Amino acid sequence: MKKFFCILLSFLLLVPFAAEAVAAEGETGTLKMLAYNVSGIPLVGDFQGTAFTATLQRASLIGKLLNGTGVDFIGTEEDFNGADTLAAEMTNYPYRSFTSGGLAQGQGLNVYSTHPLYNIDRVKWNCEYGSLSGSMDAISNKGFIYALMEFAPGVYVNVINVHMDAGYEPLSVKARASNFRQLADYINENLNDGRALIVQGDFNFKFKRQLADDMVGNLLNPTGLRDVWAEVYNNGLYDTADPAFDKNAPGDDLDRILYRSGDYMTLTPVAKTAPDLTGENGERYTDHLPMLTEFRYEITGSEPAPAELKTPQPENSVVLHLKEALWTVLRIVQAILGLVELPYLIYQGVELLANGKMA
């Protein structure tokens, strides 16, 4: 009889924990996502704020600002050589990716979360343009970083932080269109798993530009993703030829966020803002305002834990430094070969002087 009561007591003690093992269906709340291009290219980025700020000092100051935002998830772009310094200040974000290296080797992309992150995957773009011309996208391994976020017990969200090829001249536009298609292929091959999906970052794309990169045809339509700006601020319109499409609506920025709901979580965008994160005296440390997006979510079900959950691990520092050295040599060779781009670079300069910089 004593043994029976011990078993019964153990069962009763475990019941509350079992009840908390999965998220409550019908639960609603707010999910806040933030993306920030920190202008972390060494030396170049030092001049991109409102006052000269050296790379590591700027990374530390930005890390402190990001740490106080209170959002659920943060993706950084162009953190490159300052990634570890920035991360050291992010004490409110216990779950994070680890640097992929400095400028020559690294992506400049990382993610931080108040919720557990798993299965980090980094992907390099197949197509990039410019060692000297364009926006010099070929001097780093730009691409995207994927993470599986355990938002609640039994509810996992796919999250991607991106940095697309920059520039608006024809070869950069062609490269960016390829980026969109590559990302769409990755999503369709790997992430049609019933989970909600959020893609955010520096897209170097604006609807108002009306260029041939065609994010709608190359990425949104093939994947079912929607653009927060278009949905919340442009009446759900994507066709720039539609007379009702407002090309001057605020918020059609280079930094964007895309989303789609899943079988276990419904996402409804509420707002997209650009908070002005500044220092004590109003200093800005980057030429980008961060992008803060707020979703209202509803839990619509729970799922078993994925078969594989790999926690992020830092790469061996010796291996990382060796890769950086090898990639630096490669970048130098690319720059020498890139001299063939000079005529195109001169053409770009003439076009810029003639027409002005495109918005």
Question: Would you mind describing this structure in some detail?
Answer:
The structure is a single chain. With 359 residues, the protein is of the alpha+beta class. It has helices at residues 2-19, 55-67, 83-88, 170-190, 215-223, 228-233, 317-337, 342-355; strands at residues 28-37, 73-77, 95-96, 109-113, 117-124, 143-152, 155-163, 196-202, 226-227, 255-260, 265-273, 291-299. The termini are far apart. Residues 1-20 have low confidence and may be disordered.
List the helices and strands and how they pair.
Elements: H1 2-19, E1 28-37, H2 55-67, E2 73-77, H3 83-88, E3 95-96, E4 109-113, E5 117-124, E6 143-152, E7 155-163, H4 170-190, E8 196-202, H5 215-223, E9 226-227, H6 228-233, E10 255-260, E11 265-273, E12 291-299, H7 317-337, H8 342-355
Parallel strand pairs: 1-2, 7-8
Antiparallel strand pairs: 1-12, 2-4, 3-4, 5-6, 6-7, 8-10, 9-10, 11-12
What is this structure, in a nutshell?
The chain has 359 residues and is an alpha+beta fold. It has helices at residues 2-19, 55-67, 83-88, 170-190, 215-223, 228-233, 317-337, 342-355, and strands spanning 28-37, 73-77, 95-96, 109-113, 117-124, 143-152, 155-163, 196-202, 226-227, 255-260, 265-273, 291-299.
